Structures
1.
Amino acid sequence: MTMRFDHDSLAQRVRFASGGARSNLAAEVDLLGSQRIMVVASSAEKELAEQVTAGLPVAVVHDEVVMHVPTDVADRARSVAEFHDVDLLVSVGGGSTTGLAKAVALTTGVPIVAVPTTYAGSEATNVWGLTEASKKTTGVDARVLPRAVIYDAALMVSLPVDLSIASGLNALAHCVDSLWAPRADPINAALAAEGIRALNLGLPAVVDDPTGLDGREHSLYGAYLSAVAFASAGSGLHHKICHVLGGMFDLPHAQTHAVVLPHVLAFNAPSAPEAAVRIAAAFGSDDAVSGLAMLRSKLSAPRALRDYGMPEDGIEAAAAAIVAAAPASNPTAVTQDNIVTLLQAAWEGAEPR
Ligand code: NAD
């Protein structure tokens, strides 16, 4: 078959070194010539932020971080940035923290250097998200792409194992969904496959040895690749489902992804044979669905949406919203009936059908 595609790569420096965050961040601040830094970190992430920003010209530390970036929270952070006339945003934390720095960058144009402490991957995308009155809006803007990402697996060892698993499966979902998302292409597919391989190796090692760096490094590397693949390929069915569920029922982000992923994989794999072969190979398995099932069993992965507060009587309405949002190019045709079946299984924690 002829190979033909258009691919955008996002310009960003990545510095990856366990134990190296402080010196790598200082080098980035030097390169940018920053004099007045706004550090964004939630109260749980503050200690890590203090470690990595020690000795830098910090004008203000801002810790009001809320998942999905409510607009009033974003407005307050923007006022703080303007009041202190900051010239660099340094985010130290998970996707919620990176998301708040992005909200500030979106309106002020102040650059970001991101120091991630989960596997969410927001640091490698030009996607922002804001929530108003329970409705999350996302968009793409070059201003929100961090100039540089400082990865340090030593910052991950404090992330509790259950959160590490959910967050790592969120990263895995970026990889899998990239293989059939609207702008899927051979380059993001190659990144996604390597991301799956690295996460499949790293996450069980995190469970076996949560304070060891080996599993953390592989998982972080896989999470970065997953986010690059996702930023390039766009949101596929899996992301549309999680977006609808998260918004309608205020479900936790990473856990929702972790529960939904096997159901979407089982739903799409029969109609996406090339992607299925690629996913299976990346898992070192004969079959994509069983490769993921094997990893999930090693991790005791989150299983049921009902455990995270989704009401069963919300399934029909969620399915209707998902059918409306699903990409037309999804490999398996999406209908109200088959999405209700998928959601019912994910709600109960049944085996994917
Ligand atoms: P999160 O940032 O809310 O973090 C989860 C919890 O873990 C928080 O309580 C946080 O304080 C804590 N935490 C983080 N790092 C820690 C560490 N090293 N040690 C101890 N505790 C730590 O959750 P998340 O899953 O990382 O991010 C979710 C958000 O990111 C969602 O709003 C999602 O929409 C967004 N996101 C955006 C993109 C994008 O491209 N824009 C991509 C992925 C996720």
Note: The mean pLDDT is 97.
2.
Amino acid sequence: MKKLFIGLVILLVGCKGNSQEKPISEETVYSVQKTDTQWRKELSDLQYFVLRKAGTEPAGSSELLDNKKKGVYVCAACGTELFISEHKYDSGSGWPSFDREIKGNVGFDVDYKIGYKRTEEHCAVCGGHLGHVFNDGPRESTGQRHCINGAALKFIPSEK
Ligand code: FE
């Protein structure tokens, strides 16, 4: 019985020694951090659903979809500049689309929410979900299609 016990201990310790448990990804610390209650207060229901719950607005619903004015698109939650009008194009998807982001202000992640791998994108400052990036964008420029929820954005027109 004693031998069996020692054997078990060796087996357990051995297993533990072999398994390398590392966290999958380190938790990102965003410079703008608010409690869920604060976000709920500050954002509209749709903004909260998209930005904080990684939801998707109905296709064709955003008033920014056909916006062709010159200006900058900022995060609706924290005001960080995310996209500029020069990089906006009509993808026909029903969501505001850009061929590139403002580098450094957008963070990327991987999600499998609808069963296959997609590149998720979010505001690098507050972590608010914006949309996804696909590789079927305009070939003459970057080939990227940043498919963005209009509810996650605010448009600031350029001054004339
Ligand atoms: Fe933000």
Note: The first helix runs from residue 2 to 18.
